[in-house]
Please model this.
Amino acid sequence: MSASTCPATAPLATTQPRVIVVGSGLAGLSAATQLSKHSIPVTILDCADRPGGNSIKASSGINGAPTRFQTGPDDTTFYDDTVRSAGATFTSSQAEERERRENLIQTITNRSKGAVEWLSDEMGVDLSKVAQLGGHSRARTHRGNGGKPPGAAIVGTLLEGLKKNPFVDMKMKARVTKVLKEAKEVVGVEYVTDVDGKEQTKSIQGPVVFASGGFAGDVRGMVSKYRPDLTGFPSTNEARAGSQPLLVDIGAKLVDMDQIQVHPTGFLDTKDESATVKFLAAEALRGEGGILLLNNGQRFVNELQTRDHVTDALTKAATKLDTDLRQWDVTLLLDEGAAAALDSHMQFYLWKGLMKKTTMGDLGETALEIVQEYADIVAGKKEDPFGRPAFGNWSLTDVQADSVAYVGKVTPVLHFTMGGVIFNDESEVLDDQGQAIPGLWAAGEVTGGLHGHNRLGGSSLLECAVFGRIAGDQAASFYQSHYLAGKV
Ligand code: FAD
Ligand code: SIN
Model:
């Protein structure tokens, strides 16, 4: 991506005001879908070549509770799990901020059932399979039963609907460089685009929904600014600059910028160890029964703890590799039962050479013993010394040297930024006085404060759907009252 440039000439304005959505990931697509439902003209701007952002890569699923796809009694613990995961960042915040954080968590957890129903029942996305990810006390992360991984399935479905929608116009390779404000109100954006091979600056008038994602791919820029100690980690995110500063320029305030999630399992492709952007080993691989082994064959952690906990345990216990990047020597192992539950994911990882099919005997004597111990724990014959609460679809009971094993090398990766612009439960962006900036909303990873110290797996797609739709509704009613009622 080229660096942001200031316009050399007065920008060309397009004609009719529209609601402008910055970003075509799930947050932007959810907002645009909602706006078009209200018959509001929308322009989506995205600087990438192709739509979908990091959302299209999502591999484990979207949280919802309680839903009809879950089994057992109604799931009532999602709010508590989210607060526990948010940790001290949540509990130590001052009263007013604490209330805002509580409201945000209430909003995503209370609306999670509706978000899953919207995607499955209205949009037709298969979300019928449910797994338990780290830090969750119940299985509540929804994905399809085979077919595409959840990010591609959800984003693909929304995009298909928007592409044939007469209210929606989508411009790719259109990088927003400035948010336009008149008096106190946001009234449009400037963006740089390619016209006949030349960069041109244009502008569009209208209220703005910002859905430009996080900055975990901005490794040398915002990550090194806010967390210099994370320099040298690879990332799962596309390498692109964070766009939060554009909002700071017009008075937005940032929160939790140093809270960057390091996911414990990015694939370490032995053919390309120096790759700075890595494929993710979906947390669902552990959720469905997979375990983590050190190079001496030992387990070292409850694999279903929160990501911050697993990453911390891994970097303390595992052998550091002698590579340019900061990487460790850990094996992710699944039996046939766990692998079958994620068949389409596994086919992709095997095809890419990120995992291989082998035998338990191939892993060495210690690993064989440790896997038998784990199988006994799953069967209820032994207590897990690490306190793992669930075992997904692990089915192997009698571990033999020729029992099938699926293995891949994994290492921690920068994955998600919990920090971003301060916003409230109506998706309004707040200034340093805590006041909403009129004409501006934000949703998805560009926002901060919701997840505190650690985001639970599956809650990012959820926040995109929930707050993206709220932003769409809010911007629609603002457009109706400010633009259609004769203000412009
Ligand atoms: P994005 O999807 O990243 O979209 C932002 C878009 O904004 C991008 O297309 C970008 O090009 C565009 N943009 C940025 N700046 C500008 C600008 N200035 N002008 C114009 N356009 C701009 N979460 C889950 O809940 N469940 C999962 O299973 C899951 N799996 C994941 C797997 C991977 C490999 C990764 C990387 C993430 C995963 N996540 C998952 C996290 C989740 O996918 C993302 O955090 C979330 O989708 C972010 O969505 P978003 O819409 O906020 O941003
Ligand atoms: C994963 O598949 O492990 C990612 C899930 C998430 O980030 O929520």
The pocket of succinic acid (ligand 2) is lined by residues 59-60, 280, 282-284, 457-458, 460 (CB under 6 Å). The chain has a mean pLDDT of 95. Residues 374 and 380 are 10 Å apart (CA to CA). DSSP finds 13 helices and 22 strands in the chain.
